[in-house]
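Table S2 (continued). Query chain:
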Amino acid sequence: MTSHGLDYLGSYHTAEAVGGYSKLWFSRGGICSQAFVVKAIPAGFILCLPQGAIDDEELEQATDEQYTGNLGPWTQVNIIAVGTSGRELKKTVPCLLIDLQAAEAPSLSIEADPALTVKTFGVVRLQSVWPSRVRTLEALEFFLNGEDVDDRLEAYFTATGSEPELRDAPAAPTIGADRDQGAADLLHQLLQQSSSQAGVLSGIQRRLASLDEIESRLSSLETKPSPPAGSSLGPSPVEGAPAWAPQLFAEGSRANLGSEQMHHLLSLAG
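Corresponding output:
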C-alpha cells in the first residue's frame, strides 16, 4: 500500500506529501514534459505541467466536449519557482494545472523519453527550477474555489488526502544554503564596517593636512624680519611741501632737483 493509498500512482508522491512531490515526466503528443501530481483522488489527479505541454487545440477541444474524455478542467497560472536549494525565487514559471483521469497515470515516468521533445519548467541563473509546492497548492485551491467550477472537480473538495500536508511551511533550505547565506551576510557586514572606518580615517587626514598648512603659515610669519624702529615705509617729507601733495615733492627730492627748482614747484603749488 502506498502512502497516498492510490495504487495507480505507485510510489509517486503528491504536493501534499510531507517530503514534497515526486519530480516526474509526462509524455503526450510527441512532447515529454516535467510534471508532478498536485492532488489525487481515486478517479483521477491534478497534474502540474509547463504551459505548452498539452496543445492548446486539444485543451479547447476538451472544454468544448465538456470534459467527457481523459482531459478534465484546466487553468493556466504563473507560480513562484524554487531553485535547487528549495528556496523560493523572485521568478515565476508559467504552469498548466489540469485534471486527468486515472487512466492517464501510465503516461507518467521517472525518466524522460529521449525520443520525444523535452519541455521543462525553465532555467533561472543556470539552475533548473520547479514550481513551489506551497504556491501550487494555493493556486489549486484558488482554481477549485472559482465561480465556474465543473462538476468533475467536486470530488476534490470532499477528498481527504492521506498524505499529511505542510501548506504553511515553505520547503526547508539545505544546510549548505544556510552556510552560504551566513557567509554572505558576514562579508556584507565587514564591508560596511571597512567603508565606515575608511571615511573616518579620510576625515582625520584632511584635518591634519589643514593643521600643517596653518602651522607653516605661522612659521613663515615668525621668521620674517621686522622693519627697524623709526623707519618709514614712505619717502621722507620735503620741508615746506604742502600736506596735500607730499608724494610729488618727495619724488622731486629724490630726483635731486635744485633749490630754485623746488621753490618753483612750491610757487606753482601755491
